[in-house]
Design goal:
With 386 residues, the protein is of the alpha+beta class. The chain has 8 helices and 10 strands. Helix 2 crosses helix 3, helix 2 runs antiparallel to helix 5 and helix 3 crosses helix 4. The longest helix is centred in the N-terminal third of the chain and has 32 residues. The relative contact order is 0.14. The structure holds the ligand Nc1nc2c(c(=O)[nH]1)N[C@H]1C(S)=C(S)[C@@H](COP(=O)(O)O)O[C@H]1N2 and molybdenum atom.
């Protein structure tokens, strides 16, 4: 059997596949990956139980913005990465150099690019699937996406360092300059280089517009893929429904009781008793790690007032326990600075209406500058930590 022979470098003759194009797209790709990395590290830290440096509670919309930037920069990177790979992939087929030393150097460089490409594709693919709320894998998304994020940024830094001379020459010269082209890349493409770049920027812009509406209210109507914007009671999407969390019975049961505990002190209240306490109203967003966010006007009891019922000292972390019996988000840790912030509520109402069961009836946590995943619904118990 005869295997098909791989193409050789010389067979790729389009002048579009040049360092002039790759460097320009690479610059924007680098900016997108840099933004996604920084905002990703922030998001990961915000979800840590233990925060040696307390994550700030202000501005209340901070997490909404950083997570929005994370998803938008990742989405914008998709067309950029595809075009970038198209411009450089003939190099895969370049003949290995002669001489052991040059071979070793080239091998290392190719190895680092292999790692970079694999990590970049993994990050964009897993991130996109996550924002589409599709988890066709069994690993933990958060820890894997975080770990590979470090791999990607490390390989990117190495790649930029290795390519810096080429990048500087390419960006310093006109886009139509051919002095850095591969010798056979002489055939004009179907587009001019400027045309290809323009098309790429437009594709990237369209990808952003098609998804950003799930965080930017003004873009809601143009975002065909931003499906999770504003559908659901009170204009806020529903993430896990009461049915999916298996709380449809316990949430509306007359036996429901809310408990706040500190050491051996415990106070138990009915929903009516919660509603009879002084009520406060706060405008706070829910910003899901999956990329959508929405602002709401929440009313309920200031969380600190509940902690005062059991004389909890300030600054203590609080375990928030929901009626939900299984699943990773049935319990969350509310750090002391969030617990003491007077914007943090045990909310009973949204937009003046009784909280819908899917939004967490009988009551839910809502705190400023906090990942949506930690805004626990169907709360039954607060435990002030020792
Ligand atoms: N008990 C419980 N609370 C939960 C969740 C959950 O699965 N269980 N999901 C969280 C996630 S991921 C988000 S984004 C918000 C969404 O709140 P909403 O469904 O009211 O919009 O609820 C959070 N609270
Ligand atoms: Mo979420």
């Amino acid at each position: 059997m005869k295997l098909p022979t791989p193409p050789s470098d010389e067979q790729f003759t389009s002048r579009l596949r040049s360092a002039a194009v790759a460097a320009r797209i690479g610059l924007w790709l680098g900016i997108c990956f840099g933004l996604a990395f920084v905002t990703g590290v922030i998001s990961h830290y915000a979800q840590n139980h233990s925060q040696p440096i307390p994550f700030p509670t202000s501005p209340s919309w901070g997490y909404r913005v950083t997570q929005g930037v994370h998803v938008v920069s990742g989405t914008a990177a998709v067309p950029l990465l595809l075009v970038k790979l198209w411009t450089v992939y003939p190099r895969l087929f370049a003949r290995p150099p002669r001489g052991l030393r040059r071979l070793a150097v080239e091998g290392l460089e190719r190895g680092s690019i292999g790692v970079l490409v694999a990590a970049a594709i993994f990050q964009l693919a897993s991130g996109l699937l996550n924002s589409a709320q599709w988890y066709p894998w069994s690993f933990s998304f958060r820890s894997t996406h975080y770990a590979i994020g470090w791999v990607a940024i490390g390989a990117l830094v190495v790649h930029i360092a290795v390519k810096l001379p080429v990048i500087r020459r390419a960006l310093g010269a006109d886009v139509d300059d051919t002095s850095q082209d591969r010798p056979n890349a002489t055939r004009p493409g179907v587009l001019s280089r400027r045309g290809l770049l323009r098309t790429t920027w437009v594709a990237s812009g369209v990808a952003v517009l098609a998804t950003a509406g799930s965080t930017v209210p003004l873009l809601r109507n143009v975002s065909v893929f931003g499906v999770r914007s504003g559908d659901g009671p009170g204009g806020i999407p529903i993430n896990k429904s009461a049915r999916a969390a298996a709380v449809t019975a316990s949430a509306v049961s007359p036996d429901y009781r809310f408990t706040v505990a500190y050491g051996d002190r415990e106070v138990t209240l009915t929903r009516d008793e919660l509603a009879a306490m002084p009520q406060a109203t706060r405008s706070l967003p829910i910003a899901c790690v999956e990329g959508w966010s929405a602002g709401g006007s929440w009313s309920g009891v200031v969380l600190r007032d509940l902690l005062d019922l059991v004389d909890a000292p300030r600054g203590r972390d609080v375990l928030v326990v929901s009626l939900q019996e299984s699943g990773p988000y049935r319990e969350t840790v509310l750090q002391g600075n969030f617990a003491d912030d007077d914007r943090t509520l045990l909310a009973l109402r949204l937009e003046g209406e009784e909280l819908a069961i899917d939004h967490g009836y009988p009551c839910r946590l809502i705190a400023p500058n906090r990942p949506g995943v930690l805004q626990t619904k169907w709360v039954k118990r607060l435990e002030v930590q020792a």
